[in-house]
Amino acid sequence: MNEILLIVLAYLIGSIPTSIWVSRKFFNIDIRDYGSGNAGATNTFRVLGPKWGSFVMMVDVLKGVVATSLYILLPYYLMNEWDRTNFMIALGLASVLGHIFPIWANFKGGKGVATLLGMAVAIQPLVAICCIGVFLIVLYLTRFVSLSSILAGVSFMVFILFIFNEKETLYRIFAVLVALMVVLTHQKNIGRILKGTEGKVPIFKSRDRRRQRRKEEL
Fold first, then answer.
1. Which among 182, 185, 159, 191 is positioned nearest to 172, based on CA atoms?
2. Measured between alpha carbons, how far is 131 from 133 in angstroms, rounded to an integer?
3. pLDDT at 64 over 90
4. Residue 213: how many CA atoms within 13 Å on its side-chain side?
5. For residue 212, what pLDDT is reported?
6. Which residues contact 114 (CB under 8 A, 6 or more apart)?
C-alpha cells in the first residue's frame, strides 16, 4: 500500500506542468497554442527563448529526480539494492507518465525527455552525465533540441547495454524502452528535420554570426 501511494505521488509530481504555468504566469499565453503545440522544454526554448526554456528544462529534470528518489521514505529500500532499483524505475516511470499526461493540465503535457533524464540522474548518475554530454554536443552543433533529445535517449540505451554493461535485466529493458519512447514521441520532429523545417532554438547566435561573417569573407 505504501508503494502504491508513493507511485501516485510520483505521478502527481511529474504532472506539474512547468511550461504551461510559466507561459500563463509571465506571458499570459498557453504554450500549447504556439510552436509545436507541445508543453515541454523544447517548445519553450522555441517560443519563449533560452532563458525560460532552460528554466523549464531544469524544473522538469528535477521532477524526475525528486519523484524517483521517493523510495527513501520507505526504510526497506535503503538496504535492498535490487528491490530499490526496481522501485526507483517504477517511481520514475510514474513521473514521466505524469509529465506526458498531467492531471493538472487536462492530460496534455510534454514528451517526458527532461523528466526521463531526471530519473536517470537519480538511478545512474554517471550514465546521466554522459547523456547530458551527448545532448549538449548535439545542441551546440545543430541547435535542434529535438535531435539532441533523440540522440541522448538513444545513447542512454547504448551506455546501459554496451558501455557500462548494466547487469540488471529490468534496467536493460527500461533502457531499450526509453530509446523507443523518445524516438516514437519525436516522430513529427524527425519528419520536420528531414524536410528541413524543424525550428532551431535561439542560442549560440554569436557563433552563428561568426560563421556567417567567415562565409561572407570567403
1. 159
2. 5
3. yes
4. 6
5. 60
6. 40, 41, 56, 57, 60, 61, 64, 99
